[in-house]
Every structure is written in C-alpha cells, then in structure tokens.
Automatic annotation (TrEMBL):
GO molecular function, a single term: metal ion binding
Keywords from the UniProt entry: Iron, Iron-sulfur, Metal-binding
Species of provenance: Ellagibacter isourolithinifaciens
Keyword Iron-sulfur among record annotations: yes
Top-level taxon in the UniProt lineage: Bacteria
Protein name, per record: 4Fe-4S dicluster domain-containing protein
Regions annotated as coiled coil: none
Domain 4Fe-4S ferredoxin-type: 2-31, 40-68
Highest classification ranks of the organism: Bacteria, Bacillati, Actinomycetota, Coriobacteriia, Eggerthellales
C-alpha cells in the first residue's frame, strides 16, 4: 500500500498535484493556511493511492513524498 506525505513548509498550494493525480485523492485544504499563507495540498484517502508518483513529479517545490 502506498501513501503520500506533503511537507507544508514547502507546499505553496499551486494545485499541480491535484491535476496530476489519476485517482483524484489530492485536494487543497480550504480550511487550513500554512505559515506562508497558502492552502496546502493533502490526501483525502490514502487507501486509494496507487503509488504512481505523478503528484511528486509534478510538484515544483519537491513538497510531496510517496512511500510504498
């Protein structure tokens, strides 16, 4: 089973990972704001992560790690 983690210190809420995810399990958290003022990305259902790494590859700030 794969899972992702987002380093909110680096995430600027650009949303590229949201569009890249083939299983549509990543979204921007509209209820939280990081110290830098961004809505961070987060996974809404880790059990559906297929470990494809599309989100991590798309992230321009290297804020996403994929664990398998």
């Amino acid at each position: 089973m794969a899972r992702i983690s987002v380093d909110e210190g680096f995430c600027k809420g650009c949303g590229l990972c949201v569009n890249a995810c083939p299983t549509h399990i990543i979204e921007l958290d509209q209820e939280r704001i990081t110290a830098k003022g961004y809505h961070p990305a987060h996974c809404i259902d880790q059990s559906k992560c297929v470990g494809c790494c599309s989100c991590a590859v798309m992230c321009p700030d290297v804020a996403i790690s994929v664990w398998r």
